[in-house]
From TrEMBL:
Molecular-function GO term, any one: metalloendopeptidase activity
Family to which the UniProt record says this protein belongs: Belongs to the peptidase M48 family.
Residue ranges occupied by any Peptidase M48 domain in the UniProt entry: 209-413
Active-site residues, as the UniProt record annotates them: E278, D359 (proton donor)
CDD domains: M48A_Zmpste24p_like
Cofactor binding description: Binds 1 zinc ion per subunit.
Entry keyword set: Hydrolase, Membrane, Metal-binding, Metalloprotease, Protease, Transmembrane, Transmembrane helix, Zinc
Residue span(s) of domain CAAX prenyl protease 1 N-terminal: 70-204
Top-level taxonomic group: Bacteria
Protein name as catalogued: Ste24 endopeptidase
One Pfam family from the record: Peptidase_M48_N
Lineage start: Bacteria, Bacillati, Actinomycetota, Actinomycetes, Micromonosporales
Amino-acid positions noted as binding Zn(2+) in the UniProt annotation, renumbered to this chain: H277, H281, E355
Transmembrane segments: 6-28, 65-87, 99-124, 145-168, 174-198, 287-308, 328-350
Length: 415
């Protein structure tokens, strides 16, 4: 068999594995509660809060779409013309055109160009967040966060670029197979490492102080049969008024994190309701599901890139001889960005299904639909969510069921 046939076969196997994980681990069944119930829930929300949520999201919209479009256009211009390859060459020239300099510095410059063109949109977004009182950051703190994010991205990007192009040099025939394995391994490692190494760069985490709330949360976790090592409080108030909680990592790094803003804003019963939702993620190993899908998806993406590399017109457009050479890094970024835009709505759909399961579980665990609804209403109002968003946008980008869907679910459960 030729290398190409092996690649096609491998891609087939990976897609079957993705299918198996998706079918067995994602809760596909269950539709949102009836629209009539959603409208009844919407009517129960304060009209001014609904209007404010809609106005806030409308104010964010032009910036979000603008950033998406300009990012795509720049990626396509750099990736599908020889312009990107020329930039990579120019960046590597002072270092004698060494392949590693082209791969790492050239790659980072291409990424940086994408970041810089979308920077005005990020700043615009911050002005909207300030205007609506959601952000508590001044421009200095905002800039520090931005530079930290660039720093984390540059370290990770340099590792990925150096790793990828080392593999393509060492294994000219089989780089796609080694690269697919390495990509999958990287996703697994990052899931472990991210909560421990990266989250502390942006937030300070302290164990929740002893007391009735902590006891009741630990008790809730015990009753749910979920081993929770710790409940941590993140100092999110440095940045935002938004309230949230989440679960990250798995095994020894798994912990539940509660925003300090949530503790400040919500009564203890509502905090318990939020944590009950998060416990469901731990209980169903949703982080593991996401990691498995991410690892298999990344491996499949590497094989797909190899197969795309056989498409001569594409290489000619980018002015490169091979998709595996450092000069092709802009082409690779363009493929990654297009791939991300295509995969986004699929990820959002899966995420909504998983989140709906957590909501249902929170209702079962607490047996308290009134508190659940009070909590969801508070979440929407404090976070300035649009409780009943445009259906198309919600379908494409919504990571959670909408507020009215969540309220309607609780109302239906109560009946
Ligand atoms: Zn959740």
């Amino acid at each position: 068999m030729s290398t190409r046939v092996w690649a096609v076969a491998t891609l087939g196997v990976l897609l079957v594995l993705i299918g198996i994980v998706a079918i067995t681990r994602v809760p596909w069944s269950g539709a949102p509660a009836p629209r009539s119930e959603q409208l009844a829930a919407l009517a129960g929300l304060p009209a001014d809060a609904v209007a404010k949520g809609k106005a806030f999201n409308a104010a964010l919209r032009p910036g979000s779409y603008g950033s998406m479009v300009i990012g795509l256009v720049v990626a396509l211009v750099l990736g599908l013309t020889p312009f990107g390859a020329r930039i990579v060459e120019a960046v590597g020239r002072p270092l004698g055109g060494h392949w590693l300099a082209q791969a790492v510095l050239g790659g980072l410059v291409i990424v940086l160009i994408g970041e810089v063109v979308s920077l005005p949109f990020a700043a615009w977004r911050h002005t909207v967040l300030k205007r609506y009182g959601l952000s508590t950051q001044d421009w200095g703190a905002w800039l520090v966060d931005l530079l930290k994010a660039y720093g984390v991205g540059a370290v990770l990007g340099a590792l990925v670029l150096a790793g990828f192009f080392t593999i393509t040099r060492l294994f000219p025939q089989w780089w796609w197979a080694v690269g697919a394995g390495a990509a999958a391994a990287l996703v697994l490692v990052l899931t472990f490492v991210f909560p421990v190494l990266v989250e502390p760069v942006f937030n300070k985490f302290t164990p929740m102080e002893d007391g009735a709330l902590r006891d009741s949360l630990v008790q809730l976790a015990e009753r749910d049969g979920v081993p929770v090592k710790d409940v941590l409080v993140a100092d999110a108030s440095r940045r935002t008024r938004a309230v949230n909680a989440y679960v990250s990592g798995y095994g020894a790094t798994r912990r539940i994190v509660v925003y300090d803003t949530l503790l400040r804003e919500a009564p203890e019963a509502e905090v318990r309701s939020v944590v009950a939702h998060e416990l469901s993620h731990a209980r169903s190993n949703d982080v593991l599901t996401g990691t498995l899908l991410g690892a298999l998806g990344s491996a499949a993406a590497v094989v797909l890139v190899y197969l795309l590399g056989a498409w001569e017109p594409l290489l000619r457009r980018a002015g490169v001889d091979s998709i595996a050479e450092p000069r092709a890094v802009a082409l690779l970024m363009a493929i990654a960005i297009v791939g991300g835009l295509v995969a986004g709505p699929v990820q959002a759909y899966v995420s909504r299904k998983v989140e709906a399961r957590s909501d249902a579980h929170a209702l079962e665990l607490t047996g308290d639909p009134e508190t659940f609804q009070a909590m969801m209403t508070r979440l929407a109002m404090v976070n300035l969510a649009d409780p009943d968003p445009n259906r198309v946008e919600h379908g494409l980008f919504g990571s959670h069921p909408s507020t009215v869907e969540r309220l309607a679910m609780a109302r239906a459960w109560a009946k």
